[in-house]
């Protein structure tokens, strides 16, 4: 059984597990595991919101029960996910897209310290606190200081459809930024949360769409065909079904039938045909000249546009 790599809305704060990428060196094996940073970050967030850290379950900060982290002087801006384009995922293959953001911080915040962590992830839900799913990068982002208080950061968002996605995830996602500074405290077991700085920012940073990869086929026959005879053009529109990790027909969708005459570069739309209950397409035309037949789907908010490769028919 697949297990979504996120948390339920009722424990939205746990979405910080997606945000354990520090702003310094990428792939530093000496840094603590994501889960360790996420657990403390969750406790820090809870403490700021309620006045005391969450101490249920296996929290390592029970000894800091009365401590409240201070608000770290860090803000996020100029967040861009996948260069502003939708993230399109199939059923199995990992998808990695670029992430960039600007980190602005107080002059007393050392973002390159070994115990400073910051990143931007994306989440789906009404708010970060009520996130239904969260996606992040596999590795620490790299931040380059451009002044004493500003750094430009680059990372990735890594998507594993088989493990992380369900069909309801084809939607608009929001970006959230997070930073935690341990200030010499052990990142795996800070004894004094009041010495830990924490902030997260999820309002108006950026949005991105997550879409289900689509496929479109075409077959025009017979080949060759006598002039004046009937050509039958068939095809099928399918898209990734993240619930079943298979491709299923996209039903009741308008798809354009297009033709390009041999020796030309432009396709002309001849008619629009709707996919049936299996995503299949079928229509007929009268053969007149040699050329290429294809289907062209304009896409929807959850599914990207796709064009079939033209199928050549020789008219005798």
UniProtKB/TrEMBL annotation:
Signal peptide interval: 1-26
Polar residues bias locations: 47-58
Ranges where the record places region Disordered: 43-63
Keyword field: Signal
Record-given protein name: Lipoprotein
The species this protein was found in: Streptomyces glaucosporus
């Amino acid at each position: 059984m697949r297990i979504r790599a996120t948390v339920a809305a009722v424990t939205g704060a746990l979405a910080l597990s997606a945000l354990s990428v520090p702003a310094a060196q990428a792939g530093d094996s000496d840094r603590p595991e994501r889960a360790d940073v996420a657990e403390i970050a969750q406790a820090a967030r809870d403490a700021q919101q309620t006045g005391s850290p969450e101490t249920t379950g296996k929290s390592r900060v029970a000894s800091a029960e009365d401590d409240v982290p201070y608000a770290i002087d860090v803000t996020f801006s100029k967040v861009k996910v996948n260069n502003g384009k939708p993230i399109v995922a199939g059923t199995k293959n990992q998808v990695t897209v670029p992430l960039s953001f600007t980190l602005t911080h107080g002059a007393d915040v050392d973002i390159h310290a070994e115990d400073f962590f910051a990143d931007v992830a994306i989440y789906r839900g009404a708010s970060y606190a009520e996130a239904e799913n969260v996606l992040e990068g596999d590795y620490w982002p790299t931040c380059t200081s451009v002044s004493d208080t500003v750094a430009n950061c680059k990372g990735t968002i890594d998507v594993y459809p088989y493990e992380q996605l369900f069909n309801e995830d084809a939607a608009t996602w929001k970006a959230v930024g997070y930073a935690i500074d341990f200030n010499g405290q052990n990142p795996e077991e800070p004894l004094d949360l009041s010495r830990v700085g924490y902030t997260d920012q999820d309002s108006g940073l950026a949005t991105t769409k997550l879409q289900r990869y689509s496929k479109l086929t075409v077959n025009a026959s017979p080949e060759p065909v006598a002039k004046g005879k009937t050509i039958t053009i068939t095809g099928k529109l399918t898209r990734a079904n993240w619930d079943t990790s298979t491709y299923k027909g996209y039903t009741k969708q308008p798809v354009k039938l297009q033709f390009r005459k041999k020796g030309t570069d432009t396709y002309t739309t001849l008619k629009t045909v709707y996919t049936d209950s299996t995503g299949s397409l079928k229509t007929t035309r009268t053969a007149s000249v040699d050329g290429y037949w294809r289907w062209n789907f304009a896409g929807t908010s959850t599914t990207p546009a796709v064009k079939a490769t033209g199928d050549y028919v020789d008219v005798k």
